[in-house]
# Entry
Amino acid sequence: MAEKFDIEQVRKDFPILDQQVNGAPLVYFDNAATTQKPQMVIDALNHYYTRDNANIHRGLHTLAERATTGYELTRKKLKDFLNAESTDQIIFTSGTTAGINLVAQTYGRANFSKGDIILVSNLEHHSNIVPWQMIAEEKGAEVQVIPVDEAGILDMKAYVELLDTKRVKFVAVNHVSNAIGTINPIAYIIEQAHRVGAKVLIDGAQSVAHFEIDVQALDIDFLAFSAHKLFGPTGVGVLYGKRALLEAMPPYQGGGEMIKEVSFASTTYNELPYKFEAGTPNIADVYAFGFALDYLKSLPKNAVWEQEKALLDYATEQLMQIDGLRIVGQAPEKIAVVSFVIDGVHPQDIGVLLDKFGVAIRTGHHCAQPLMARYELVGTCRASFAFYNTKSEIDLFVKALKRTITMLS
Amino acid sequence: MATINETQDELIEEFGLFEDWADKYEYLIDLGKKLSPMNEAFKTEENVIKGCQSKVWLHAEKHGDHIVFFADSEAIIVKGMISMLIRVLSNHTPAEIMQADLYFIDQIGMAQHLAQTRSNGLVAMVKQMKNYAVAFNAMA
Ligand SMILES: Cc1ncc(COP(=O)(O)O)c(C=O)c1O
# Structure
């Protein structure tokens, strides 16, 4: 394995990057929305459907055995990836959203009661707000908010005060903000929540692709993320939970796979993790996801982080030189995401024109309307990088952006 | 007064002068800038067209037999698009607007952008303009 991070080779591993869009070389800076997939993942999907496809777990034939082994192997890889205690605590879902809803609808339904407080932060994605509002409404609980400051940093003093003065039962925060890139101090957030007996769900959608998470070291109660933001296929998510919590939780959906015995008089439920995996799961994509984890492991240690840090610093420096441009989210601890606005220009106009130059960024509220409201913005332009991006792509982006601004003014 | 199709043909001709996509967009942006300002009183929540990434307001009035449209948007490219729609559809009768076949969208050479992106709300704008025509028609 190469010890050096070979960007040329890495880019070749992601075939989609090598193409023209609207007559210009593609510059893909929408990695926070979804990441691209290495050839290994694409090949694995192809292999699965060409050689191994069968339904898993109960089949006695060879293909069923292969499919089951492939599916369960990814669970094993995830256990190692997260340093989880056991594979039983790795539950496959369809994505971050599904994982959060699962916890809200099972843990929340069983444990929240009238007057309980569920804390979310002002930085959350809608999918870590709405499921809590739904269960809170049902249970007479209340969702309250950890405030965020001008720079995009969560107010930890206010957080601790909320914990000390309110009946906080649960805390749901993201590890990293998708809209502005802030890395939140989750170790501290978890420690403080546990001090008052509250449980914590970490929305890891935006962090898993950028750095390692050790669920035991961080003492995480629940962690949800999506494979598609981690160089894997769409339609797969992971929910990690502490064993005692998962065991005590009622099942979510009923159906096949999640049962032990069914009769019309009574039904007993299967053990972890199957209790939460009703129905035929997304076998092919789970299998292929394992190869994304292998791919990441094959990269030299720290390379991902160093490459992304270099891209973030360079992009920030280049963008700051543009007149009228303001970066939204200036926390010192950030992943490689730059959210920005330009005086007198609507983000949508920027997005439309950049696309014509082959540059893919995202514009709008980034499913974080409460955060946009906090900053009194209709939306931002967001460029989000992955380790396969380069400084020369940033140059193309900045050049296109300058041209775009000229066209619009 | 030009018919709806005459105006569409004019637009097709105007856009035909540009070869480069950038020039077409610059023209569209220019049309956006030149759109007559909308009375602030019409920028109500009720007049907001749903389904656009940027806010778009549309208001219609009946002047004699004709419908007159007023619109605005926060985003200039969207404003350029509304400006074209207003040029084509405003000052026509409800029946004419209801029956209008807006072929210019495909023929000005920007269809890929204009038609494809749901978030730019072009479809929603056309629909809303036709809804006004239906409503005024029913009242008549
Ligand atoms: C922070 C965060 N949470 C949750 C989600 C939702 O992920 P998914 O749509 O894959 O369920 C996203 C995706 O944009 C996100 O960025």
About this structure: Chain A has two domains: 7-30+300-408, 44-297. The pocket of pyridoxal-5'-phosphate is lined by residues A 95-97, 125, 127-128, 174, 178, 203, 205-206, 226, 367 (CB under 6 Å). The interface with chain B takes residues 22, 345-346, 348-349, 352-353, 356, 363-364, 378-379, 407-408 of chain A (CB under 8 Å). Residues 62-82 of chain A form the longest helix (21 residues).
